[in-house]
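Each letter names a residue; structure tokens follow underneath. Both lines appear below:
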Amino acid sequence: MGNKPFHYTALTKEKDLDVLLQEIGDARVVMLGEASHGTSEYYTWRTAISRRLIQEKGFNFISVEGDWPECYAVNRLVKGYPSAGSKIADVLEVYRRWPSWMWANWEVAALVEWLREYNKLRRQEEKAGFYGLDVYSLWESLEQILLFLERNDGQAAEAARLALNCFEPFNRDPQTYAQATAFVPTNCEHEVVEMLQKVQQHRKFNNDPEQDFNTRQNALVAANAEKYYRAMISGSANSWNVRDSHMMETLDRLLELHGPDSKAIVWEHNTHIGDARYTDMADNGMHNIGQLARERYGRANVRLIGFGSYQGTVIAGKAWGAPMQKMEVPPATGGSWEDLLHKINTDDKIILSKDLKNVPEVQDFIGHRAIGVVYDPKYEMLGNYVPTLIPERYDAFLYFDETEAVHPIRMKSRGAKEPDLYPWNY
């Protein structure tokens, strides 16, 4: 490929992001990816980009690949709501479900501190928010709904109580629920749908628009989580699509909440934000939030920005629910996207997809590294490279030649009994 076969911008300081901000232009949705859930540079540079998008382009919120109840607690902290807590590390302890290090880390703490300071001098409607898009929090969402409705609406609370009671025999174990409903025609779908309808059709519960939205969102999470866990048993593509469709639905709802001119930042793994139509995911009938956003809002209004690295260290677990550990990430395999970028030189780089049009090596599908929360470097070649048409999957890409592991806020994670149902762990 020569020494510099295409234009790129060396990435050494925040000012170098100017080229990326110019490429983002007037887009309404900017999705910032990551090639792992445990790499410090991905969090740090996503924070730098997000700060500039909020300050310079008026973006309203950051939405992440995290659960709604936990992220909403962080949202209330950064917006200064009463009784939201004051110590950031204490509030981040809400992230106790494995893998806790994804959001309970010092890189996220720095982002939260910046958001809180940014919001202090702004009116409530001008404050930047922090929300979770994911669908895993079935029991937590049900409990929050019941707690709130018991104080505000007895009829709706009864529906929530019936839904929660329906799940009690499964001991907070999604795998137990999924396997039980696969062989018995009885499940809790009716109870959660009825609860969702009661919550959505009722009057507003108070004068706090976010608390009202929070209650309705928890009801939606519960309904879609039940659907997700049932879908797991019938095939990974089906459950993946339920999950990403829920994340897209939540993004839509957040944009609607913030008004017709609102703008959103999304932090998720590359496998979610990079358009699935330009990977082998499409062959398996899978879609993702990046694809759905382009289809929903138009390609000109969405910017998908991938992240990746050649080698370094990462936080991950050897199995689902296993203790987190710092692992070595070996040099990228020969012929992969990361290997090609490394062979140019060892610069950290910003690459715009429009500058890849005359690069023959990326006009066809090429291996592109993806590390999940479960990782073993010895078996990387067996499933950690996603065939990708890079210039179409992303609008831009941030490459780091050597990266280091994220820095967790040490705490004990609540384990999970879910490995058999999660062949994709992104």
Q: What stands out?
A: The radius of gyration is 21 Å. Confidence is low (pLDDT under 50) at residues 416-423. The chain has two domains: 1-62+263-426, 139-247. Residues 139-247 form one domain.
